[in-house]
Amino acid sequence: MKLVHRPLAWQRHGGAPYLSYTHGTFPRAVDALLVDGPPHWTRRGREACLYQAMPSLKVGARIFLDDYRRAAEQRTARNWLDAYPSALRLVAVIEEGDHVAVLEKTAEAMSPRHTLSRRADAHLQAALQPLTSRVRRAATRLRGR
């Protein structure tokens, strides 16, 4: 078994900047994917993770999405299911802590289908990015004092 850690980094996905998992090569056949991280700063970064890893996931692989109790994570799971309607299914929700959604890759997948909500969110994120960058820089300066 090999564990691959992907720290967060700024990148673009679907036309908008996201704080998401660092790009890199994945093993050829991934059995499981754990999607976690600070949800408030990543915006759709958790969602982008699956799009990066999906080609490497084996059929039957499990995807674990932490913090599924939150509305944003439930929306992420819905977007994944919309993007891969014939290749992904929700298997279970583990109702411990902040809940974990368990999804399964059921077939090989083509490129993700871009849903209207994902495109709209990408445009909103792109419009807000200059403001969030200024706020983040100001917060960093204040922490340094």
N- to C-terminal distance: 44 Å
Helix/strand structural class? alpha+beta
Shape, principal axes of CA atoms: globular
The succession of helices and strands, N to C, reads: EEEHHEHEEH
Number of domains: 1
The largest beta-sheet arranges its strands as 3-4-6-5
Helix content: 25-40%
Report the biggest beta sheet as strand number plus sense, adding barrel if it closes: 4 strands, mixed
Strand % is 25-35%
Number of DSSP E strands? 6
- Helical segment tally? 4
Q: What would CATH call the class?
A: Alpha Beta
Radius of gyration: 16 Å
pLDDT averaged over residues: 80
Low-confidence segments: none
CATH architecture: 3-Layer(aba) Sandwich
CATH topology: Rossmann fold
**Quaternary status of these chains?**
single chain
Description of the molecule:
With 145 residues, this protein is of the alpha+beta class. It has a single domain, classed as 3-Layer(aba) Sandwich (Rossmann fold). Helices cover 38% and strands 28% of the residues. It has a four-stranded mixed beta sheet with strand order 3-4-6-5, covered by helices on one side. It has a two-stranded antiparallel sheet with strand order 1-2. A hairpin with a 5-residue loop joins strand 5 and strand 6. Helix 2 runs parallel beside helix 3. The protein is globular.
Give short descriptive properties of this protein.
145 residues, alpha+beta, Rossmann fold, four-stranded mixed beta sheet, two-stranded antiparallel ribbon, 4 helices, 6 strands, 38% helix
Describe the secondary-structure layout.
Blueprint: E1 8-13, E2 16-21, E3 30-35, H1 39-42, H2 45-53, E4 57-66, H3 71-83, E5 88-94, E6 100-105, H4 116-144
Parallel strand pairs: 3-4
Antiparallel strand pairs: 1-2, 4-6, 5-6
